[in-house]
Automatic annotation (TrEMBL):
GO molecular function, one term: olfactory receptor activity
Predominant place of localization: membrane
Lineage of the species this protein comes from: Eukaryota, Metazoa, Ecdysozoa, Arthropoda, Hexapoda
Tree of life domain: Eukaryota
Organism: Calliphora stygia
Annotated membrane topology: Multi-pass membrane protein
Compartment(s): Cell membrane
InterPro entries linked to this entry: 7tm6_olfct_rcpt
Residues annotated as transmembrane: 34-51, 88-109, 152-185, 246-268, 280-297
Keyword Transmembrane: yes
Protein name in the entry: Odorant receptor
Amino acid sequence: GAIFTASFAVSCCLIFIKISRGFASLADGATSCATAFLYLSTSIATANAFFQRTRVVRMVTFLHEDITELLRITDVKEELMLAETVKYLRIVTILMWTPSLTAGFIAYIDCFYRSAFMPETVFNIPQVLNGTAQPILLFQLFPFGEVYDNFIVGYLGACYALFLGITTIPCWHTFVTCLMKYIVLKYGIVHKRLKEYDFAKFSLELNPEKVRNLSERDLLYWHTKMCEFCVTHQLKLRWFTGELQALIRIPVFSDFIIFSVLICFLFYAIAAGNPSNMDYFFIAIYLFVMSFILWLYHWHATLIAESNDELCFGLYSSPWHRFPLSIQKNIRLMMMESNTPLIMKAIFVELNLKTFIDVVRGAYSYFSILRSANMETDDNSI
């Protein structure tokens, strides 16, 4: 874990050293800058996960035990909800992995093909440094050789850094998405059980006929068990959400800052620079990945908040008016607790769709300002 985390940090440092030396044009440095800052955000996430590995293990263990218990007493509707969640997560996984693998595959094929058949275009660092040659795509993304002209650092190091990026970035964000989607799923199941108020989930011996013939004392007991179920799982979900927030608040906050600036910069690079077709392609991939990552966090945080709010309606949808007075009072208290908002934050940034829209608007506004300033500069020079 430490070596893996350090590898990201070293990759970031090497790219930033190259960036600090400048580029001949904005188009030449756009993809390198995007790679550097994307790796910076991932370095923060991996380092944070490494130092909080105890929390990660605790959350995954809880998740495994809870899903195992959930599968033990599910009905057809709940199995359908679980299947839809799995299908949804598979789609998210495909959307996260496809651009990463596509970009990595293109860079690797270009590098290996040129290494085998056109080595003079690969091992040409002196010519690249004096401006008489252009680096290959892999070295444009990871210009390690321009920092330290060595085969291990410049060639193998770049290949390894690309492998880290195309595997770790989608893995981390897909993992966090799974944790967030689990909360939404569990809230949905709790909401369903409260709405149906089915005692059979607590005992295999109970069936509709036995429930109708329960004595008043037994009925009160099972009503109390249902209240305990609601309170217990609500507290567990709030605890799990708090743990998740503590795990991702620093990485998501860094993503919020870095991606907001980087999206604006890449749009400006497209408008003000003269990127090649391959640069356009990679810039488009970076824009999609960063926007999709931000959307994932803000969208699922919104779903979590809405699922918590809907729990109150699930309680109200139950046949509470038929229950004993003591149970009605308990339900009222649970509804009051459910009305407490469950808002996820990345330090002080609220995660919701409104924030995501504000990020997009802000990035476009800054891009418009930079573009206008650049056009005025061009007009004055003419």
